[in-house]
Design goal:
138 residues, alpha+beta, Chemotaxis protein chec, 6-stranded antiparallel β-sheet, 7 helices, 8 strands
Length: 138
């Protein structure tokens, strides 16, 4: 998944998922919290792989991921391609109205647009992208 899309969350907490992204995610996908102040979207297949890895962890490590699973919601877009983002998740990611939906390889993320712009700028200026590209032998 790639690209950045600007969208709005409506007054009822619904977000229209871009058509191209819906094609990549499939009819059912999962939205949950992550380590950054954003929400992460996993396709049904990616979620299954994540769950398999989780199930293989020792309990002492798996329990640290409880919030990831306890805050996950299974999503099926309505006829207009919208999903309802629960209030708790919107609060976690500080999502008010303007959001950026970004593709990040095998997943997507939903950011408050201002927060994403600051995060992206910081990563571009810090040189962390260059370090990561070197690690991948780019």
């Amino acid at each position: 998944m790639t690209g950045t899309n600007q969208h709005n969350i409506d007054a009822k907490g619904r977000l229209a998922i871009p058509a191209k992204l819906r094609e990549e995610l499939g009819d059912v996908f999962y939205v949950t919290i992550g380590p950054d102040p954003c929400l992460t979207i996993y396709s049904d297949q990616s979620w299954a792989r994540l769950t398999e890895k989780f199930d293989a962890l020792p309990y002492s490590k798996a329990r640290a991921l409880r919030p990831l699973f306890s805050n996950a919601v299974k999503c099926e877009p309505d006829g207009q391609g919208r999903i309802l983002i629960p209030q708790k998740l919107r609060e976690y990611a500080n999502l008010k109205k303007d959001v950026s939906v970004i593709g990040v390889s095998s997943r997507a993320e939903i950011w408050d647009s201002a927060t994403w712009q600051a995060q992206e700028q910081q990563e571009l200026e810090s040189g962390s992208m260059l370090c990561a590209m070197e690690e991948l032998d780019f």
